[in-house]
Design goal:
Oligomer: single chain
Number of strands: 18
Shape: globular
Distance between the termini: 7 Å
Number of helices: 15
CATH class of one domain: Alpha Beta
Length: 470
């Protein structure tokens, strides 16, 4: 890609931006900028913005982008900052456009089963709102304090993807501000749409490099009335993971299929200060089933429970009370923070492989610890092949850490390629994972991605140096 020359922000620009916004408190400059704006949740990739603007409307976003386009100022959109690959880090400094104050639920359309929201609405707020109306937004990424705009930008998945799909499957329409400040609409409330290229789906997963989402129309479903989970201990992780393809091939697909190991559970117990409901095994599958009655769900899980026992499961523990359900899923939800708290620093791998290759990939990650000289902890969505592996620094020196983690990352992504997998299942590429994307995709794919970027953003001002860009 060509080299781009960006305008360095001066005090005159700050004053002009304050006039555009009309509220000095929402334009941060100099010492008023918090350190949080220089990194995301994981850290490791760091760069400070020159200015932070807290937008409260589409008009704010449009005006800022028009000014940035005219003056060639780089702009990086940001939501809650919960990402793990540096997507919201302003690599060319410039403006960080914080969309977290655009956090309003705009319309519940029960006739069309859609919800229209601004990008700063938190996932947990969205889920609670629709459930109050007996409706259901199925995408369920682990970080409930993430914004829906961030979920759309990375095409987040989560635990329920095995049955319901990912964020892309539940976005009907988007209002988008283009890099030049124009406001456009892609998609809408229609269920079917074969009207030209699907520009909506290009925006989803583009990590804020093509446009800024300022409104989203989301598809809803009727709320399942009941949910029951099965916690199933196995004699080994190999036996647990090996059962997953058989579950998938059965006539009943659970809402979620998660795998976990005792060492990660112990981290979660320490982090939460609460005991896990079962202690008898080093490896577990956690299954969830939902439906409209206990009888319906029991009929669904009976065959799966029998199948697991036939494959050597030690037991099938039924979580049929709210207290049990909460204790199990709260532990599962705490895995990331618990692992993070167990070491001095960590880096993560969010690869995805075909479902029938999960066992081989998990075994590889376990064996890699000795070869790479690193502690590696993993868990994931066994039902959709999306695995999360965390590489822990512990007491390694910075030099040892950098060398070992680089080697381990390269080996993991090489193995994922051998298994016909991909670099990311739901966290995105951002800045941190670009080298691995370059290795995993054909040159034509990378050139097409960068060509699309140039069509949307010929000045390359919107979130530069992310995904496929140099």
């Amino acid at each position: 890609m060509p080299e781009y020359v960006y305008h360095s922000i001066e005090e005159t620009d700050v004053e002009n931006l304050r006039k555009l916004i009309g509220d000095d408190q929402r334009v941060l400059f100099g010492d008023a900028i918090s350190e949080d704006y220089s990194h995301d949740e994981l850290g490791g990739t760091e760069s400070w913005p020159d200015v932070v603007i807290k937008a409260t409307s589409t008009n704010d976003v449009s005006n800022v982008m028009k000014y940035a386009w005219e003056h060639a100022i780089p702009v990086t959109p940001r939501g809650a900052g919960t990402g793990l690959v540096g997507s919201c880090v302003p690599m060319e400094h410039g403006i960080v456009l914080d969309l977290s104050l655009m956090n309003h639920i705009l319309e519940l359309d029960e006739d069309n089963l859609t919800l229209t929201v601004e990008p700063g609405v938190l996932l947990m707020e969205l889920a609670a709102f629709v459930e109050e109306h007996d409706l259901f937004y199925p995408p369920d990424p682990g970080e409930k304090s993430a914004t829906i705009g961030g979920n759309i930008s990375t095409n987040a998945g989560g635990m329920r993807a095995v049955k319901y799909g990912v964020t892309r499957d539940f976005v009907r329409g988007l209002e988008v501000v283009l890099p030049n400040g124009d406001v456009v609409e892609f998609g809408g409330k229609v269920v079917k749409n074969s009207s030209g290229y699907d520009l909506k789906d290009l925006i989803i997963g583009s990590e804020g490099t093509l446009g800024l989402v300022t409104k989203a129309i989301l598809k809803l479903l009727p709320l399942p009335k009941k949910a029951i989970s099965l916690l199933i201990p196995f004699p080994s992780l190999e036996a647990a993971i090996g059962t997953v393809p058989l579950i998938i091939k059965s006539k009943t697909i659970p809402t979620a299929i998660e795998f976990m190991q005792r060492e990660v559970i112990e981290d979660a117990e320490e982090y939460l200060g609460k005991a896990f409901p079962d202690k008898q095994s080093d490896a577990y599958l956690l299954l969830k089933f939902d439906g409209n009655s206990v009888e319906e769900i029991e009929a669904a899980y009976a065959n799966v429970a029998k199948l697991c026992l036939e494959q050597g499961a030690l037991d099938v523990l039924i979580s049929d009370t709210e207290e049990r359900e909460e204790s199990i899923w709260k532990a599962r939800g705490a895995f990331l923070e618990a692992i993070k708290g167990s070491t001095t620093y960590m880096d993560e791998v969010d690869m995805v492989v075909p479902r029938n290759c999960v066992n081989e990939m998990v075994e590889y990650l376990h064996d890699l610890q000795k070869e790479a000289g690193l502690r590696i902890k993993s868990f994931g969505h066994a039902g959709d092949g999306n695995l999360h592996a965390y590489m822990l620094k512990d007491d390694l020196s910075d030099e040892e850490w950098e060398a070992r983690v680089k080697n381990a990352m390269e080996l993991v992504y090489k193995k994922a390629r051998e298994l016909k997998g991909q670099v990311s299942g739901e966290h995105g590429i951002g800045f941190a994972k670009k080298p691995y994307l370059q290795e995993s995709l054909a040159t034509d794919n990378i050139e097409l991605m960068n060509g699309i970027k140039r069509v949307f953003d010929s000045k390359n001002i919107l979130n530069p140096h992310k995904i496929a860009q140099p």
